[in-house]
Amino acid sequence: MNNKTRFFFHYNKHTGKMTVHHMGACHSVNNIICNVACETKWNKEQPNLVMRGWCNEIQFNENKIAIIV
User: Fold this and answer.
1) d(Cα 14, Cα 4) in Å, to the nearest integer?
2) What angle do CA 48, 64, 40 make, to 5 degrees?
3) What is the rounded distance in angstroms from the CA atom of residue 41 to the CA atom of residue 13?
4) What separation, in Å, do the N-terminal and C-terminal C-alpha atoms of the chain show?
5) How far does CA 9 lie from the centroid of its chain?
6) Cα gap 29→22, rounded to integer Å
7) Is there a contact between 12 and 18 (Cβ–Cβ < 8 Å)?
8) pLDDT at 1 over 90
9) Residue pLDDT, tens place only, 6-65
10) How far, in whole angstroms, is CA 1 from its chain's centroid?
11) Which of 6, 16, 19, 62 is deepest in the core (most CB within 10 A)?
């Protein structure tokens, strides 16, 4: 059985970093390695553009890099 969950990420202008949203949590990261398909989603409000997709999990390493698998 495949239990993929929705994720999305975008640039956060206030922190100057990328923000990853997954399972109700928001993570500020230095970089993102996305190993799954994702798509653009345009919003009328900020953030105007987010990248979203479905993943099995997201791992965070000691350098605050999110690895989406």
Assistant:
1) 30
2) 25
3) 18
4) 16
5) 3
6) 13
7) yes
8) no
9) 999 999 999 999 999 999 999 999 999 999 999 999 999 999 999 999 999 999 999 999
10) 23
11) 19
